[in-house]
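May I ask for whichever protein you like with its backbone structure tokens?
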Amino acid sequence: MVRKDCMLMYGRSVTVSFTEDPKAATFNSVTYNDTLSPMPVPQCSSDKQHANITLKFPDSGLVKGFSVSMVFKYDYRGGYALSEMNATLKDYKDLQMRVKDLWWPRGFSFSCSLSPFRQYNATKLPQLQLQLDTFQVELVQNNTGQFSESYDCAGFFTTVIWMGLLVVLLYLVILGTGVFFIYDIRTNDRFDDPKGKTITVTATD
């Protein structure tokens, strides 16, 4: 948990995966769950509209010299965004990561249950992949020291909601087709009345 006058940041865990063999079928993975020591200190602009922070992780197994730097900026849409992320791992320096879709409006905090990041050049070693579990961040505009209402990365129309809407639409199409055919049924104009004169149909060759 990073708690400074210009930034709040929280993450339950960070998982790093990489490979140094382009032909390898599996990646080396390590998950960090412990609090970082020393605590990362963000660097903020005087107006608190921009901030950058570097997270340094201890060596664990094959993961050595691992660190992640993030740059947050206020943008033209009236909110904040992660504009840049770079990682260092072993002898691989300044690995640029893809950071699209990490944005939140002013007055909110950004939260995401699972935030994946991939190396910008995915074909280049070490093919680094990062995964932040329960990640939340805010450039603080108040003195409460608590996160504001969260702006979730999932959005309203999740995959599950879209699938539910498609199923409902399919059922409506089936129901509409059935009703159409029911109304299209045509009955005979006359019926054979047992108490009346018998309807006689004359057939000729």
Observations:
- The mean pLDDT is 84.
- Residues 156-187 form one domain.
